[in-house]
Amino acid sequence: MRDPDFDAALSQPSLDREQFQQDPYEPELGSLPDATATDESAVNKTGTTTIGISTTDGVVVATDMRASLGGRFVSNKNVQKVEQIHPTAALTLVGSVGGAQSFIRNLRAEVDLYEARRGENMSMQALSTLAGNFARGGPFFAINPILGGIDDEGHHVYSIDPAGGVMKDDYTVTGSGLTVAYGTLEDRYEEEMSNEAAREVAAASIKAAAERDTGSGNGIYIADVTPEGVDIDGYDFDELL
User: Fold this and answer.
1) How far apart are CA 54 and CA 88, in angstroms?
2) Cα torsion 131, 136, 140, 141: sign
3) What band does 12 get if pLDDT is binned at 50, 70 and 90?
4) List of E strands, 144-198
5) What is the tally of structural domains in the chain?
6) Closest listed residue to residue 227, CA positions, set 150, 112, 121, 153
7) pTM: predicted TM-score of the whole model, two decimal places
């Protein structure tokens, strides 16, 4: 006598052959954590105003010093939001502090690997492209950093948006205080500026933003990028203006 369960099993449709066509050496595609599920009110954010200016001497990158919780409470008054990531380049931190710090660590590691493998420093075009790829594909929350650096092709300033877009300009501003800072910067900016002049313009622009933007304030960090390297120092506004 035939087993009805056995007949039912035989009548089931065969498995889709495409399920077995995947290359065994191809990486499996995963998914990033859903950032929308995070309680962002408890995330440490920089708020911030950051500025990058290309000069005749090199590049000046400047940021304020304030970090906040959800933009409502000042959690730290002395955050260094600009870091050296290359022998002649610096990058700002904008957005969630943890995401920005992780972004910088990953980017700095890739720069070091590039130099070790090729025996030369990464160009600014390559570095900006890599930063854009990281911003688009990595779990870094919303970040909008500025990259300023020098290579054999000249002096460069790039803004990198959260979707991975990379835009080069003579100067740029990002962060919550950008609308106020841009007005001051464009009023005072001149072509062929020196690093010293650019430092004063950047300080005035960030101070103006700090007067109206609750996410910016408490002083300024400035990275002077020249062919000799990157020098980063913190100042009160009165020291520069």
Assistant:
1) 13
2) positive
3) low
4) 146-151, 154-160, 166-169, 171-175
5) 1
6) 150
7) 0.79
The CA dihedral of 118, 133, 175, 75, to the nearest 10 degrees, is -80
What is the pLDDT at residue 148?
98
Tell me the per-residue pLDDT of 79-102, one tens digit each, with 9 for 90 and over: 999 999 999 999 998 877 777 888
Catalytic residue among 46, 48, 55, 174: 48
Residue 48 designated active-site: yes
Take residue 151 and report the two structure tokens written for it: 């290579």
Q: Per the structure block, which two tokens stand in for 78?
A: 């002395």
Asked whether residue 107 is assigned to any structural domain, the reply reads yes
pLDDT digits (tens, 9 = 90+) for 185-214: 999 999 999 999 999 999 999 999 999 998
Query: What's the pLDDT score for residue 40?
Result: 47
Helix ranges (DSSP H) in 163-194: 178-188
Sheet strands side by side (includes 82-86): 82-86, 89-92, 146-151, 154-160, 166-169
Report how far residue 101's alpha carbon sits from residue 206's, in angstroms, rounded to the nearest whole number: 22
Distance of CA 60 to the CA centre of its chain: 16
Indicate whether 27 belongs to any domain: no
Beta-strand (E) ranges in 177-239?
A: 220-226, 229-235
Q: Which residue segment(s) compose the domain that 178 sits in?
A: 43-240
Query: At 208, which CATH number?
Result: 3.60.20.10
**Predicted local confidence at residue 221, as pLDDT:** 97
Residue 190 dihedral angles phi and psi, to the nearest 5°: -135, 145
